[in-house]
Write a structure and sequence with these properties.
Shape: globular
Structural class: alpha/beta
Strand content: 15-25%
Largest sheet: 5 strands, parallel
Distance between the termini: 33 Å
Strand order of the largest sheet: 3-2-1-4-5
Number of strands: 5
Radius of gyration: 16 Å
Order of helices and strands: HHEHEHEEHE
Length: 153
């Protein structure tokens, strides 16, 4: 039996159980972002903003920032996955393949995306199963008009 001390911890545990982490394959990321560019107005080196809801190990956030040079954010409820994402950034920085200023366009935040307002984002990504759609009402109530919501899976 798991004893939960605070209501907020219960909500966090429930979110982690109902919304599992699954990584998007690199192949699909390339395809997703190419479609965003050609069909939905994603522009490299622009003031557009991207957020990955439940960013896991940061794959989509990192891909977006390093390949499109736009501000890219990830919100994740699991601190271990945020740590993994930050470690991936360190490894990429050490390799020296990308301009170091691109890494300043990447931000990860510990939190529950059901509590965040999504008004500041132009592109909103979520790895989603049909069974998760009941959770998305908050997303559609807080995005700004004209935002593009990308749901993969």
């Amino acid at each position: 039996m798991i004893k939960i001390k605070k209501k907020s911890n219960y909500g966090r545990l429930l979110s982690q159980l109902e919304l599992p982490f699954l990584e998007t394959d690199f192949y699909f990321l390339e395809d997703i972002f190419k479609n965003l560019e050609t069909k939905f107005g994603l522009k490299s080196n622009s003031d557009q903003r991207f957020i990955d809801l439940g960013s896991g190990n940061g794959s989509a956030v990192i891909f977006c920032a390093l390949n499109y040079n736009i501000k890219s954010y990830g919100i994740e409820i699991d601190q271990n996955l945020i740590n993994e994402a930050k470690n991936r950034l360190k490894v990429l920085k050490k390799k020296g393949t990308y301009n170091r200023r691109l890494f300043k366009r990447i931000k990860f935040k510990l939190g529950d995306f059901f509590l965040d307002n999504l008004q500041d984002y132009d592109f909103i990504y979520i790895y989603s199963f049909p069974s998760m759609h009941k959770f998305l009402k908050h997303l559609f109530n807080t995005v700004k008009q004209g935002s593009i919501v990308i749901s993969h899976k």
